[in-house]
Design a protein that fits this description.
The chain has 6 helices and 6 strands. A 6-stranded mixed sheet has the order 1-6-5-2-3-4. The longest helix is centred in the middle third of the chain and has 15 residues. The radius of gyration is 15 Å and the shape is globular. The relative contact order is 0.24. About 5% of the residues have low confidence.
Length: 155
């Protein structure tokens, strides 16, 4: 994935972003600058309420890659400190509410070695969602410097 930029990205998005938002199967996006290395960790970006219903999928994918699973929460200061029971190690990353979540994800993953990011992609059901609600996962795919696994999540 090389990412689209400027006006083209605003109108059409990148090929990878479009594939991720429409795919019914998992998509592994590999940035061109990534140097192949053994993956030892997969960071799963989940909301606290997603941990319990998705824990089997998290374990399945971590086991498939032979990597350790870590759940990472991106939250603003107002919700920081709330923890959810999880069978996986957790990290909390504080964000500034005005910042874009996709930028926070990209910055967080910069410099991680032997790690992939995994995000679950929810189905966009309405025309409004498909036009105006850009996929955070698709945006991350165009800017991330480590592999990213996008898993479709049916509504």
């Amino acid at each position: 994935t090389t990412g689209a930029s400027g006006l083209a990205n605003m109108i059409f998005g990148s090929n990878t972003a479009n594939l991720i938002t429409k795919a019914e199967l998992p998509v592994l996006a590999i940035p061109p600058s990534w140097k192949p290395t053994k993956l030892t960790s997969i960071e799963f970006s989940l909301l606290p309420e997603q941990i319990a219903p998705l824990k089997k999928q998290v374990k399945k994918w971590a086991d498939w890659f032979g990597a350790a699973a870590t759940v990472v929460h991106f939250t603003d200061i107002a919700t920081a400190g709330t923890s959810v029971e999880s069978p996986f190690p957790q990290k909390t990353v504080l964000t500034i509410p005005e910042d874009s979540l996709y930028q926070d994800l990209v910055e967080y993953t910069n410099g991680l070695k032997g790690t992939a990011l995994c995000m679950f992609v929810h189905e966009r059901l309405t025309v409004f969602e498909r036009i105006f609600d850009k996929s955070i996962t698709g945006q991350v795919a165009g800017h991330i410097q480590i592999p990213m696994l996008a898993l479709p999540l049916k509504a």
